[in-house]
Amino acid sequence: MRIAFVYDALYPWVKGGAERRFHEIGHRLAAEHDVHYVGWQWWSGPPTLRQDGVTLHGVGRAPALYGADGKRTVREAASFSARLLPALMRHRFDVIDLPLYPTAVAARLTGARLVSTWHEFWGEHWSEYLPHRPVVARVARALERDARRFGDRVVTVSNFTARSMGMAGDPRVEVIPNGVDVAAITRALPVEEPTDLLFFGRLIDEKRVDLLLGAVAELRGRFPTLRCAIVGDGPERAALECRSAALAVDDRVRFTGQVSGPDLARLLRAARMLVLPSVREGYGMAVAEAQAAGVVPVVVQAPFSAASELVRDGIDGSLVEPTVGSLAAGIASLLADDGRLGRMAAAARLAGATRDWDVVATQLAEVYRGLVARDAQLAPRSV
Predict the structure, then answer these.
(1) Can you tell me the distance from the alpha carbon of 124 to that of 117, in angstroms, rounded to the nearest whole number?
(2) What is the C-alpha to C-alpha distance for residues 112 and 349, in angstroms, rounded to an integer?
(3) Which residues contact 121 (CB under 8 A, 6 or more apart)?
């Protein structure tokens, strides 16, 4: 099959969950299929590049994804959408994956099958994300709502997302979660300096890393050797570093910036707990990777986050409320009981071992294959 993944950001230049999913699935499918990635050009040189068996197509030089307020910009999204249709029309794909208005038009005009992969569904969260731009929030909410009809098949990365879309139980919907590279994580050698608490992800306000800093401040007196590492970068980094200094925990908290996949696995293997205070997650890949490493996740429960679905509270992780006090209490209860922490780490490792990118890639390939095979049995569709 000739498969096109469409997304504006691209791993490893951008290290989010959606980017990681397309990267991991894409290079696995490339062993048997002709896989392409259409997005911004994050690399130097010509606009077409072969990487890990996948052909990358740049629709233009990558702009800044975030504005001065730390939010994704409307201008970037509109510019990317405007460039997509001409780029997709230059090629003939069997399958195009992503529910955008230009991808729907391109699939219709070229005869490709459209698979709509939804990493998350924001709905009313648009008003919280853009409180000072209510008109833009309403337009974005309407566009997202109407895009649910796109796709010969709809793939969601979690049951949470399917429910948020109002499509749980819809026969068009297939839930295919994100995965982890279990083998790479388990064979990684831990770094020499262990860490009690680890966060990794984009440093944006929805991740609520400020709650983690507040929890460290509450716990420093009770646990004098407590150490925390914050891995990642983003528009909130400078503010978070200032907050760390203001709370007088900068001697306990280390900001590492971005690290490579292998180095992240080594940091995970040396951590006791992963802390995910995020209030918006379409899946919660950090939780899945931590569990595969035998690291106990402490996860905030929030209306717009699917991450809590990956945790059995008190068994292979801990669920807390999105407050400094609740987060500190959840962490403290584990730090004070090594036996309980060890049992939960063993259970987390077993849970993580059930999620592997090879399985995810096989499941998605079956969805694609079913659509292409159905087309082969039918007369060509009129345009």
Answers:
(1) 20
(2) 40
(3) 144, 161, 164, 165, 282
Q: How many residues does the chain have?
A: 383
Q: Which residue has the higher pLDDT, 383 or 243?
A: 243
CA-nearest of 216, 205, 194, 226 to 327 is: 216
Q: In this predicted structure, what is the pLDDT of residue 161?
A: 94
Beta bridge partners of 2: 34
**What digits encode the pLDDT tens for the residues 228-271?**
999 999 999 999 999 999 999 999 999 999 998 899 999 999 99
Within 10 angstroms of residue 49's Cβ, the number of other Cβ atoms is: 16
Between CA 299 and CA 307, with CA 303 as vertex, the angle to 5 degrees is 35
Report d(CA 120, CA 281) in Å as an integer: 7
In what order do the strands lie in the sheet containing 318-320?
Answer: 253-257, 228-231, 195-200, 271-276, 296-300, 318-320
Q: Where are the beta strands (DSSP E) in the chain?
A: 2-6, 34-41, 48-51, 54-61, 95-97, 113-118, 153-156, 173-175, 195-200, 228-231, 253-257, 271-276, 280-281, 296-300, 304-305, 318-320
Q: How confident is the model at residue 378 (pLDDT cuts 50, 70, 90)?
A: low
Structure tokens at 203: 């440093």
Tell me the C-alpha to C-alpha distance, in Å, between residue 318 and each of 76, 227, 308, 350. 37, 19, 9, 16
